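Folding Query — how this chain folds
Tokens — whole-number codes for backbone shape
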Amino acid sequence: MRYEGTVYRPPSEAGSLIIQLTIGCARNTCTFCNMYKDKKFRIRPLEEVVEDLAMARKYYSRIKVRRIFLADGDALIVKTEDLLYILEKCHEYFPECERISVYGAPKDILHKTPEELKQLKAAGLDMVYMGLESGADEVLKDVKKGVTADEMIEAGKKVREAGMILSMTVISGLGGKKYWREHALGSARVISAIKPEYVGFLTLMIEPGTEMYDQYNRGEIELLTPHEVLDETELFIRSVDAEGTMFRSNHASNYIPLGGTLNGERDKILGQIETSRQRSKFRPDVFRGI
């Protein structure tokens, strides 16, 4: 296989075969993200992608490849007919494959018709990872996400209606002190409307080389403390209505691990939050960075 630049994938794709269908991010405007700043976006020639699949099959000749992740950030921007061709080739070289997944930018999803998404699902595209980041329009505008909360809802519903598994991410603290309530309540509204199979919380990390890093150093952004992140998360959990959605906040960026299934384990998650609050009164090291 051939890889260009740093390759990113969701944590749950750690054991997957990663194939770069695209390079970089087509928009690359989010103020908080530095993942693809070193790459100029392009769609790889299909013959190169197929060559990588052939090389991977040869390399893993004695290993069953159960999952394939099509990178980088915008695989769904590829024309549907070309995606169908690559999905066919994935199953041709790896008939044992049980799941193929991609990152799905909301704009890319919205540009696909419901029929196209159903075609992709039928061809073996099983799971889409979509970054909500925030459900508050004020925050989405500030971080230059390029979509509104209602467009996020439309995109998420399209994925679910096509029969694909949908995993969404929210970034704790993204609205700063100014918009923390709007961020929590807006994100709860969007997740409630879509009811994805999974929602994962990351915690905002200010990365050098990003626009947000410069904003922070100019004093234009006031970050939440770990305790305030807990308050924000609690407000989300109390406000969200997404029966059956699996909630996780156990990324390396998170201050404490949280997890449970909505809505049935709401009290369990709130209990985890309160336990962490109580522990932090006596052990300042409960939250990293305090």
About this structure: The radius of gyration is 19 Å. The chain is about 40% helix and 15% strand.
